[in-house]
């Protein structure tokens, strides 16, 4: 679960289709999954003007939709991607630097779920050294869910070239949306 649609997401109507989405796909592949195995959502359903931080009124306007998604999907785990989503869903003020990779049982939209905060994939685009941390945190997901999946080192996952986060609109390639079946987690 991310914060809000970015430029590419706003244009395509799909979550995580830009460079951060391509890295997310690689991280999922590293634990043996594809987008069909997870449901990817954002806290906000619309991109804030100028990509500014969301206003309280915008969060409140989207909260009911987000909680309804959780009630419908009934994920076993919610992985929050980045500081904003983590603070909102956890109800805590701890920074993502402090809580990434630390699971926490919580209730979201009346549904008990395991919260698992992760750095946003864009963090590794800005700071390449974050890639190892992201891969390490992702590698714990199957274990936390009780799914015996082999973890593929990220170096062995077919790589989509990553460019700067603000690549041209032509670089966006929307990924498939999940089929209607049980989802392992909500990203």
Written account of the structure:
The chain has 187 residues and is of the alpha/beta class. The protein contains eight helices and five strands. It has a five-stranded mixed beta sheet with strand order 1-5-2-4-3. Strand 3 and strand 4 form a beta hairpin. The termini are close together.
Structure class:
alpha/beta
Percent in strands: 5-15%
Count of alpha/pi helices: 8
Low-confidence stretches: 159-183
What's the count of strands?
5
Radius of gyration: 15 Å
What about the largest sheet?
A: 5 strands, mixed
Please state how the strands of the largest beta sheet are arranged side by side: 1-5-2-4-3
Morphology call: globular
Q: What's the rounded overall pLDDT mean?
A: 83
Query: What is the succession of H and E elements?
Result: HHEHEHHEEHHHE
Question: Could you outline the blueprint of secondary structure elements for this entry?
Answer:
Blueprint lengths: L6 H6 L6 H12 L7 E2 L16 H18 L3 E5 L1 H8 L5 H4 L4 E5 L2 E8 L2 H6 L3 H10 L1 H5 L39 E2 L1
Parallel strand pairs: 1-5, 2-4, 2-5
Antiparallel strand pairs: 3-4
Can you give keywords for this protein?
187 residues, 12% strand, five-stranded mixed sheet, 37% helix, alpha/beta
């Amino acid at each position: 679960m991310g914060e809000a649609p970015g430029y590419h997401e706003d244009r395509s109507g799909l979550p995580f289709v830009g460079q951060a989405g391509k890295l997310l796909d690689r991280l999922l592949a590293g634990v043996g999954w594809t987008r069909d195995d997870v449901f990817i959502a954002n806290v906000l359903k619309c991109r804030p003007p100028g990509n500014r931080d969301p206003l309280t009124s915008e969060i409140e306007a989207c909260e009911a939709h987000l909680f309804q998604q959780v009630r419908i999907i009934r994920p076993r785990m919610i992985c929050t991607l980045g500081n904003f989503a983590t603070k909102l869903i956890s109800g805590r003020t701890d920074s993502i630097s402090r809580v990434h990779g630390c699971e926490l049982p919580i209730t979201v939209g009346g549904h008990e779920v395991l919260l698992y905060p992760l750095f946003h994939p864009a963090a590794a685009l800005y700071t390449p050294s974050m890639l190892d941390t992201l891969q390490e945190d992702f590698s714990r997901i199957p274990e936390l869910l009780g799914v015996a999946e082999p973890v593929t080192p990220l170096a062995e996952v077919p790589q989509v070239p990553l460019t700067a986060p603000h690549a041209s609109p032509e670089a966006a390639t929307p990924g498939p949306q999940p089929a209607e079946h049980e989802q392992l987690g909500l990203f």
